[in-house]
Amino acid sequence: MKIYAHRGCSGTCPENTLAAFRAAAELPITGVEIDVHLTKDNEIVVIHDEKVNRTTNGRGYIKEMTLKEVKELDCGSWYAEEWSDEKIPTLDEVFDIFENTTHRLNIELKSDVFPYDGLADKVIDLATKRGFINRILISSFNHEDIQSVVQGKKVESAILTFEVLVDVYDYARVIGTKRIHVSLPSAFRRMTTDALRKGAIVYTYTVNDISYAEELQKIGVHGIFTDYPEKMLAYLS
Ligand code: G3P
Ligand code: MG
Fold it and tell me: Where is each GP-PDE domain found (predicted)?
């Protein structure tokens, strides 16, 4: 089963920081998961929430800040004082970390609350320019964006779901993908076993408990997103 470090090694470092990605780059795991938004001046930045409030010393929406304003924020102290030098990374800076590794990068387009016109194209253009196009997997809760990416046929893509759905494999096929990233509660529902039986590639988020990971491996789930990749590596074959 493939292991992806969720927001980097976010169980031991502040999430979505260069520190969290550097820690993941040291591990023999499949890859990392990265959340991206667009700033007011159209730069791709790596952060989970639409607002900076939870994970920085600032306030407000990413989409209303320039990259220069975003870079003034401290995104490590909320987690622990030792990380106070961490700044919100750009996607370009994250690519630097993985330049000489074999890790795959699951880039989650956080375009489900604000649609961020052009985000998917910008990510694909940058990944192409940086030589990462065959190492990225784009996912989103915004399935319109995934459909557009799939129609461009440039890159592997997955739909993200949180709810328990019916016929999710058929739905994914309409969008044009076989990849479905499901939440942990729905991973053990019929939705997931049906999709696996039909040929879906299923990854589950966020799996921090060994016993859940082992159960998922048994039912044939292909990958997990975890905040503790090192711990999972020690237990999973
Ligand atoms: O991509 C898997 C997972 O990250 C989706 O949920 O809220 O952690 O971005 P969230
Ligand atoms: Mg995510």
Answer: 1-236
For 2-235, the fitting CATH number among 3.20.20.150, 3.80.10.10, 3.20.20.190, 3.90.1300.10 is 3.20.20.190
Q: 234, exposed or middle or buried, with CB in 10 Å at 0-12, 13-18, 19+?
A: exposed
Listed by start position, the domains of the chain span: 2-235
Which residues have C-beta within 8 Å of that of residue 148, sequence separation ≥ 6?
120
37 ligand 1 Cβ < 6 A:
no
Distance of CA 162 from the midpoint of ligand 1 (Å)? 9
Tell me the sheet residues that pair with 2: 223
ipTM confidence: 0.99
Full-model pTM = 0.98
pLDDT above 70 (res 130): yes
Of 9, 36, 28, 31, which is closest to residue 203 (Cα–Cα)?
A: 31
CB 221 within 8 A of CB 187: yes
- CB 179 near ligand 1, within 6 Å: no
